[in-house]
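Practice problem 4.
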């Protein structure tokens, strides 16, 4: 049973990660975009464009930074 669909990514998702505090869900897409959702309201908070191809995105242990890798 599908509970929720987040349709804000324009391309295939290559990485998906919850923040350590559970407040954010971040995704990296094949088009080098990063999306950050608020997990309390499931609204898109930020859309960022990376300058390179992304393979992964995570939130730092202090919930303050995004860490990406290509």
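Answer key:
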């Amino acid at each position: 049973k599908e509970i929720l669909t987040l349709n804000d990514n324009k391309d295939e998702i290559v990485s998906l990660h919850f923040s350590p505090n559970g407040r954010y869900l971040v995704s990296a897409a094949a088009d080098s975009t990063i999306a950050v959702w608020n997990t309390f309201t499931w609204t898109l908070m930020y859309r960022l464009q990376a300058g390179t191809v992304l393979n992964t995105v995570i939130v730092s242990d202090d919930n303050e930074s995004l860490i990406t890798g290509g």
